[in-house]
């Protein structure tokens, strides 16, 4: 069982990081979350495409690999709970005030609604990360985050187990940082914890950027 849920310090640069992954995601998520420090200041929301029968196993997998608290999302929980909140399989989430509302979603299209809702709610204080996966879930969310002034980070397709999701995100022209898997955690730490880093890593969108699908 996880411990008490606490709310992060709102004085830091970013409130929330949404991380999306599909095929190859458990290992990629472990690599990213495993390098985040215990005082990482932003709430982390995770969307991983999987079947519902492994929800508990998946959460335990992440708990063993990070010093941050990890919990399975519950209806109505506070969005900015410290640590890592994992959405249930085949579900997405919508931000309602400061609460997370869970909604059923297809296994291949669960990241975009959550990322888009977080972007609309938190604007410049949101970060979206798209990791390995097939198809294109996360690309629409990346557009929305960039449109609202947040930061977007994508795993280099060359380091991804499956390049589909990272490549689709890159094709939007709305990505700030394209990084090998092993450096993504360092970028998140810099963005959220290093003074001035958020402004340093702001990248103007490409002239051909697609802010809407």
Q: What would your notes on this structure say?
A:
Residues 10-195 form the CheB-type methylesterase domain. The chain is an alpha/beta fold and 213 residues long. The protein has a single domain (16-199), classed as Methylesterase CheB, C-terminal domain (Rossmann fold), CATH 3.40.50.180. The chain is built from seven helices and nine strands. Helix 1 crosses helix 6 (181-193) and helix 3 packs parallel to helix 4 (139-147). Mean pLDDT is 91; it is low at 1-11.
Would you state the CATH class? Alpha Beta
Overall CATH architecture: 3-Layer(aba) Sandwich
Rounded to the nearest angstrom, the radius of gyration is 15 Å
Q: In DSSP terms, counting alpha (H) and pi (I) runs of 4 or more, how many helices?
A: 7
- Quote the beta fraction: 15-25%
Query: Could you give a short account of the major beta sheet?
Result: 7 strands, parallel
């Amino acid at each position: 069982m996880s411990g008490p849920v606490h709310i992060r310090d709102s004085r830091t640069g970013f409130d929330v990081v949404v991380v999306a992954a599909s095929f190859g995601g458990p290992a990629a998520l472990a690599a990213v979350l495993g390098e985040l420090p215990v005082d990482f200041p932003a709430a982390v929301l995770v969307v991983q495409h999987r079947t519902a029968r492994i929800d508990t196993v998946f959460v335990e997998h992440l708990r063993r690999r990070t010093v941050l608290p990890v919990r399975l999302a519950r209806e109505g929980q506070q969005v900015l709970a410290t640590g890592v909140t994992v959405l249930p399989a085949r579900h997405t989430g919508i931000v309602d005030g400061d609460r997370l509302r869970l909604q059923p979603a297809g296994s291949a299209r669960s990241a975009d609604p959550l990322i888009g809702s977080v972007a609309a709610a938190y604007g410049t204080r949101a970060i979206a990360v798209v990791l390995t996966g097939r198809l294109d879930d996360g690309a629409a969310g990346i557009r929305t985050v960039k449109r609202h002034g947040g930061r977007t980070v994508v795993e280099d397709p060359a380091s991804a187990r499956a390049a589909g999701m990272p490549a689709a995100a890159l094709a939007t022209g709305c990505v700030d940082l394209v990084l090998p898997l092993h450096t993504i955690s360092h970028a998140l730490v810099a963005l959220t914890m290093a003074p001035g880093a958020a402004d340093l890593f702001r990248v103007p969108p490409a002239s051909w950027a697609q802010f809407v699908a």
